[in-house]
Amino acid sequence: MNVIKVKQCSTCGTPFNCGDTLEGTKCWCNDFPPIFVPTTVVDCLCPECFKQACSVKIDEYVNTITPDTAKENKAKDLPKAENLIEGIDYYLEDGKYVFKTWFHLKRGYCCENGCRHCPYKQEIK
Length: 125
What we know:
Elements: E1 5-8, E2 15-18, H1 47-62, E3 90-93, E4 96-99, H2 101-107
Antiparallel strand pairs: 1-2, 3-4
């Protein structure tokens, strides 16, 4: 029997379902990168606030990366998520996926396809 835990977002107060169960089912939040130090969030966040908080943390980290430091970045060592997350790993442009810098950093190397947001190559000007 799955018991759904209802929590309140510690940021906006919205109630939401936590997916962790005693039977071992994992919550939706496990698809996001584990980038929070436990003391930075009082309790769980709703999906929208969690996605926004992740985006801010990821953007702060990505802004510190240069082509010289990209190969040794910490993102490549994170546990691999099963699902890509729109707005975190990619965005859609004219119906096509455009992978963000974070996606490339998690992969850990350049695929040599000339990706728009590749952190491993110097921009040609």
